Amino acid sequence: MTSAPQHPDHDQATRHAVPDPAVPAGAATWIPIRSLSARQRGHVLTHLTSLCDRDRYLRFGYTATDDQIGRYVAGLNFDRDEVFGIFNRRLEVIALAHLAYPNADAPEPRAAEFGGSVAAHARGRGYGARLFEHAMLHTRNRGLNSLFIHALSENTVMLRIARKAGAMVDRAGSESDATLKLPNETLASQVEQWVGQGAAEIDYRIKQQARMVDTLVDAIGEVKTGVGKTGHTAKD
Asked: Is the pTM value of this prediction over 0.85?
């Protein structure tokens, strides 16, 4: 059994609402995916609670309430697992994945479990597929040879992503399991992960600086507008 991302109220919290079965024509060939830490729980919470009821149902296997999502986010184990996301220019998480690793004493076979979601307004850009590829790389570099997905059978987009990557999908009524066998880690895969992490961090810092500039410009504009409304001049 794999060590699934657990939800306090439901042990099947790893249903997945990931769109984008393939990278569409014209999409960027590289998408910065940044690892999150416990300090970014707020970003995770904001993203998940912004999902509509349908997406919550696909992601968690039931229509999770804000309180249930809050408890799920509070229980995320950032020391054992990996949580990574794609940020827009406003530093909002528009795509998120939780890669849960098995405990060290977990019985064989040991596999990581993937769960993810993409904001409705950010779909059609290949983010779901990129998150899955990212999870594949990180899983093999952890020394694990399998990536596991448990999804509702009606979540055809997520299952299509898994199949496209080469996963075997077993359907049991309303639920499906997808298992992807991975190659062993190599020096090249380790370098790929290291370079990707560094580039994503640089991208985030650039967006952070741009956000600060935008905020400053907005503040100056508000001051100018306020002064104009008062009608004061230097002679006053």
From this structure: no
